[in-house]
Structure formats: C-alpha cells, structure tokens
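We modelled the chain as a single entity of 226 amino acids. Its sequence is:
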Amino acid sequence: MLPATVIRRLEALATISKQGKHINGLFRLLETPLLWYEAYANIYANKGAITPGVDATTLDGFSEQRVTAIITRLKTGTYRFRPTRRTYVPKANGKKRPLGISSGDDKLVQEVVRAILEKIYEPIFEESSHGFRPGRSPHTALETIKQEWQAVKWLIDMDLRSYFDTINHALLMGLLQKRIGDTRFLHLIKAMLDAGYLEDWTYHGTYSGVPQGSIHTPPTMWQKRW
C-alpha cells in the first residue's frame, strides 16, 4: 500500500474500534516499509536496541534490504520468532525480576505490531486509566486526582504477584479476537507468545505468561521497549 493509504487506514482503526466492529486487513499493513522505519525510529535509541537476544542480531545494520527480507518472510509464512534470552535484574525488595531479551528482527516485528495495537485499543481505554499509556503516567493520575476528586473514603494499593508470568494465552487471544478479525495477524501475535525462552542455554516453552522486557509486553509494551 502507498504511504498515504496506510496513514488513512491507521487513522481509521480508531473509528472502527470505537464502533465495536471487527477489524481486518491488519496483516497487510505489515507490508508497508513506512511502518518499519517508524518502528526503528521508536526503539533504536533505547539501551536495549544493541542488547543481543539468543543470536547476535541487534538493531545495528538496519536497512531497506533488512526490512524487505523481514516483510518477505512474514508474507510467505516463513518468519519464525526466536526464543527470548532470559536475564534477571534486581528489584527494590531484594528479589530479581526476569526479563526476556528478543533478537533484533523480533524487536522490529514486535514494535510494528505494538504500534498497530495501540491504534486499535488506545481510543477505547477508560479515560480514568493512566497506567502504561502514551502521554500518561503517575503524574497525570495525580493531576487528575487534584482537579477532580472531592473526597476520598478508600484508596487501595494492590500488586499482583507474578502477574505477567501467568497470563493465560487462550484468554488473551480470546480478548483480541473480540475486536480483531484478521487471523494472520492474530497468529503472528500467538507466535510471539509461544516463542519460549533460553536460560543457561536451555530452552523453555511458554505455555502461559508473557516475557517482561519485550516490546509486546505491558508495561514494556508502552514504555520500556527493550
């Protein structure tokens, strides 16, 4: 598709999503180099851009030929996500948080998919939601409280233990299917979830959960973009 057509199509996603209609034609959007250049621009400056996954591929060496090769593999159904490389970072409570570091090409695919999903779901999120959304943060939440709240009876602070590690893939895909009708696009997301991870060079399947640290995973889906 021509860039102008793609821009109109992306802009229309919000309207279709608000109408509650099934959205198709998403996989075809992946054939547009413009989205890949924007994806690279979004993530190349992050410290994770040159962090290798299970192979030596990073975002170094980005080129038109690389984009063309990825698009060709996606169109022909030969693209395969590599397992993420598991590493650990310390948490404030002294424990360690597992992160999944993707290969360079996988990061690009994830960022393009993330950008498309953002066009679909951002317009229908609750206005009161501030977590992991573009242009929003704890600061915007506090500003809203300052301007709108009149009184407080209860304030609940809750953290779900190992939430991202236990997300049910079938439930997640079922939620996506309520709004997305493009089966090839859905299969691509499922392939991301099923890629597994390597820890100490031992492969582990991912039958539930999403890898923290990957672009397609909240909170990193909206912010960190490893």
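As a brief sanity check on the tokenised model: The radius of gyration is 18 Å. The helical segments are 3-18, 26-29, 33-43, 64-76, 104-121, 138-148, 169-177, 183-193.
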